[in-house]
Design goal:
Blueprint: H1 2-27, H2 42-107, E1 114-118, E2 129-133, E3 136-141, E4 144-149, E5 154-156, E6 162-163, E7 165-169, E8 173-179, E9 184-189
Length: about 190
């Protein structure tokens, strides 16, 4: 390996000597014998190469770290949205279960019984509507629908007329009154 290194140095030296001679001849320049054209010692060149390599490696590391951070941020943001959606669904289910329980208790009562229910103002900052029909409660909010099946119940308006469905709006209170001889519930708005 030492002879290869010496051979390369000799080749460089002869090339530089040829360039010097050419410049002397063409431009009538008188250059000194030991003049070198910006040649650096091998150890200095080695240091420059290692610094350049280190800089490129560092830049590659930074680029990779930033890319990984961006990917993780996207993943965590997706997970947070998923948890938020799950929380909304759980809140909606709890409201539906509460209304369903109240309607079932009232409709199956043998006596004329009344109870009041109050609906929360919002689910995760979204207003909502509950539609009650003969067999279902349907919660609608934030472009989502959730359905719960209930025991069949006949619905009546405040005048005693039979209706096919009723809409309950968030933030309102309602009175549920049993109609015992018809397995039904009369629903009227308190507000």
């Amino acid at each position: 390996m030492g002879s290869n290194s010496t051979t390369l140095k000799n080749k460089k030296f002869f090339k530089l000597k040829k360039i010097r001679d050419f410049l002397n001849f063409k431009m009538n320049l008188k250059l000194e014998e030991n003049f070198t054209f910006l040649t650096l010692e091998d150890d200095v060149v080695g240091k420059v190469d290692s610094k350049g390599t280190a800089t490129i490696e560092f830049m590659f590391f930074i680029f990779t770290a930033i890319t990984i951070a961006i990917l993780f941020m996207g993943l965590f943001q997706s997970q947070i949205k998923g948890l938020s959606s799950l929380d909304e669904n759980v809140q909606g289910r709890l409201i539906l279960e509460n209304v369903s329980s109240q309607i079932s208790q009232i409709s199956q009562s043998l006596e004329s019984v009344s109870t009041e229910i109050y609906l929360h103002e919002k689910i995760a900052n979204h207003r909502y509507v509950i539609t009650i029909d003969y067999r279902n409660l349907i919660l609608e909010f934030n472009n989502k629908k959730t359905r719960v099946t209930i025991f069949p119940v006949n619905l009546f308006n405040k005048n005693g007329g039979r209706i096919s469905d009723m809409r309950l709006y968030s933030g309102n209170g309602y009175v549920l009154t049993s109609i015992s001889n018809q397995n039904g519930v009369m629903i009227r708005n308190i507000n």
